[in-house]
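Table S2 (text version). Query chain:
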Amino acid sequence: MTSNTVLRVSWAERFPGEPYPEEEERPAEQTLGTQILKGLITRSINDISYEQMNRIVRALQRMSRGERDAPKRVADVLTEELGSEKALEYLDKSLAAGLIKAKDYNQMRSVLILPLPREEIPRPIVARAAAELVETQTRLRQDMGRLAGAGRQALEKPFQALDSDVRKIRKAWGL
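Corresponding structure-token output:
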């Protein structure tokens, strides 16, 4: 008998009806890969084939916990099975369904988009990225305008006081 078997037998004798501690359910891990797995298994947002889903599930389950929480690794698994465009659509649906966080979504999306040639990036994603870029640039220009105005205003009074002091000195010296 192995030591593990002896432990299980003695546990069963001492605590009849109680499950061995390792057999109790472990708390669910809250990794990115687990969230993607939930979406795949419940088929709540699925429009992929059953075979593709099984291959993705097996690949994610074979990963260590650390790998399952790395957006790049999870995105690589999705891309390998679905292709970049379909993986991007799946990520959009996962975010909309609340399965993944916006931060993880952005990291995974950037991993998927960067290696794609321009013509393969889906038009809605390009449009959204362009809109975000224009919005950010507009906000930066507004902020710079406010800062420039605040800087002028902050320096206006000291320069007026300096001008007044120079006038007083000239007057006092007769210049």
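Notes on Table S2: Residues 148 and 154 are 10 Å apart (CA to CA). DSSP finds eight helices and no strands in the chain.
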